[in-house]
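Can anyone check this?
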Amino acid sequence: MESTDRSSQAKAFDDTKIGVKGLADSGITEIPAMFRATPATLASLKSPPPPKHLTIPIIDLQGGDVVEKIGEAAEKWGLFQVVNHGIPVEVLEKMIQGMRSFHEQDPEAKKPFYSRDHSKGVVYYTNFDLHSNTDAASWRDTLACYAAPQPPRLEDLPAVCGEILMEYSKELLNLGELVCKILSEALGLDSDYLKDMDCAKSQYMAGQYYPPCPQPDLTIGINKHTDSSFITILLQDNIGGLQVLYDSQYWVDVSPIPGALVVNIGDLLQLISNDKFISAEHRVLANGSSEPRTSVVCFFSTFMKANERVYGPIKDLLSDENPAKYRDFTLTEYATIFRSKTIDASTVSHFKI
């Protein structure tokens, strides 16, 4: 008999180490109670569609007016897609396939990586907030690792995706620096400003796997949230499901574009830009297709690692007309707050003056 107690259900599920993929493979036709989203979440999925003119900015990094276009997207959307970014399409395809291959292995091959200890180099789990969240769990599994500045040893990574993950990470370091350079200029700063603040130095990579869901209208792939990063770069396959909240009222589809990458502003860049750029609130719908959805997210952040570097609103951006809206903080303090909350709760608000 299925336990009706949320924490007991979560523990029993966690102990199996099979993930949501294991549940889907078992042939269930109804999702367990712990995955059933709250009425408020389900109601938000039925919100009115956005006006047709609201489409995600697509920016050609080899085109003209790049600084102006990215600056405007970072202010209005907090999210945009980039094309002509310099990473070969075959690398993107191999990265998606490698991550999909990991999640589609036999459960026994994945179990050695199953952990909730984020101090470990490489972890596989379902919902990082599975036990802190009193609401429904989300229909996805994750393989994650710290990729920079200290990359993992190849032998510590899963064999099916280790080499491509390290290759992709190196490509992303270059792209992350380029995006930070453009964002620096969009803020009216020297082009190396954000890079010199280590905004593009640290990478936390997460390979997300969203199995087909037998009742996609009753759950969600990942609940609405903002990212604990300076910037996030997302590689998604062709299934779709990602949405971003525009102007606090419209959920807009971030439709997959072959070869494109999604860039979004994270909480840390909103904080240091003193709200000039906005941290995009986004979510992923539960996967109602017959194919799994796979994505690879790179958070430019130390995530949950201790880091005593102090950040706060950039002094060069402040004035009598634009005073600091946030206090200074260390990344360790930020991570502690982030770890203690559910995914859909704001971290930024903790630092408001």
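Reply from J.R.: I decoded it. The domain at 6-49+58-351 is CATH 2.60.120.330 (Jelly Rolls).
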